[in-house]
Amino acid sequence: MPDNEIVVDGLTKDFRRVRAVDGLSFTVRPGRVTGFLGPNGAGKTTTLRMILGLVRPTSGTATIGGRRYADLAEPLRTVGAVLEASSFHRGRSGRNHLLVLCDAAGMPAERADEVLELVGLTTAATRKVRGYSLGMKQRLGIAAALLGDPQVLILDEPANGLDPEGIHWMRGLLRGFAQQGRTVLVSSHLLGEVQHLADDVVIIAGGKLVRQAGVGELTGALTTARVLARTPNPDKLVAALNGAGSETGEDGVVRVTGVDTAAVFRAAVAAGIELHELTYERTDLEQVFLELTSGRAEIR
Amino acid sequence: MKNLVRSEFRKIFTTNIWWAFLVSVLVLAAVSFAFNALQAHSILHAPEPALPPGTSPDQQQQIRAAYDARKNLPVQAANLYTSGQYFGLLFVLLLGILVVTNEYFHQTATATFLATPQRTRVIAGKLLATIVSAAVLCVGLTVLAVIAGVIFLQIDGETFALTDPAVVRALLLNLLAYGIWAVFGVGFGTLIRNQLAAVIVALALYLVASQVAAAIISLVSLLTHADWVMKLAVLVPSVASSLMITGGDIPGNPPQWLGAVILVAYAVAAGTIGTLLTRSRDIG
Q: Chain A residues contacting B, CB < 8 Å?
């Protein structure tokens, strides 16, 4: 087993009468960014907190490199975690927040200054967190996660509160981490965010695993390719396609499933039909996600 | 463990609350000292008690004995040197509570337990940091009170009785009390993690529980005609504390060590139950 693989095995959590996470199993591989997706209330945060030993599972296990979080010899040097952005003492400076953690983990104070530099908070370091924007708090959270230069990064909705520039910066950071062979697990309910970042996705709904796959595999396998054609004579084109699944839309659009662009082009030429546009319609993860989780995402 | 204690110290001293605490304690201690000094002066210079005509020799002897017991330099000196104890202990109790409940109030428990997933060790670190802070506060206050007390007694024309066994004992018991209330505070915070609730319950327990308990106990004892009920008063933490420190004026005259035992038992029970709760709690 690779040293920094996250393995979730039969994880279950009951909160009073609600089963938040239900027999969840998946594996997060190093060297890749894994998106952890699900609608709000799907159990993402509870799962991440169980992996990190903050919430005690009702049954099942979660291990990092084969060990439970509580059994890690040097947790901050192994795993960096970014959970909610509000978990700082408002009256303490950002730098002091990090120094408290340095003390606990036996790391030198210089490390705090290094990560502050890395996330671009050096000038705000000695200001109290009270005066930080949401984006600055998010950066401070990331700085705390990076303190121990960990092999595994776990982030819960890290894009919340970041401006577009901050999101771009964070994506670069996470990609760089994965390229160095480290493990990155990022939860999100914003699918567009993960689509451009993740290599793999784990999709859950109602506390259960819906699907684990590579991003390309998922978008490819789950929806048949569709061709979009635009023509002044949509009805003629449909007739010419002769049985291929097709539907007409506005502005002379014809959507064809089950054939490729070449076949549509040939049919149009043979029938002498004018074409103004002919492309593949890309399915995005959003669509796949809705298909997979529809009807399973009851509010709780 | 050393790292954890250092981390807890940094938590205490990187926000403003410790300033507020320190200033409050110093002001209240100064007021207490002034009050104790006035009292010592009036008692040590009290005139011979007037013996009303017609009192029996027995009664006369009782009045004299009471007069002598009060006009006792070591007792007054000890009282001066431990000035501010009442509020000092209260603030140590509150410090212990805040050291724990701040983690939940400000949601820093997540970061703390990520850095140290062994929660018992985290609480042990908090306990040590609070005890050391309490001890430093106690020693600091004592040094100030002794300096001021010695100066006052000198001016007042008394010796200062610093090496009198009664005074030394009072100073050591004072230190012990600070330590025990620190443990009690941390235990209390782990038991009730809602900061406001923990502070209110602790304040009630410290400030008014003695009176309330005394009232209830006398009522029950009056109704049941059972004398032993009166002796239960010592089970109230603040009563036990004053018994331990001064010997107190408590029904049944229990021994002084009993106060210490009861207080330690409370502190250990609160800390143990609180630690077990903390270990099994979900942080979210």
A: 45-46, 49, 52-56, 69-70, 72, 75-76, 79, 81, 83-84, 86-93, 96-97, 99-101, 103-106, 144
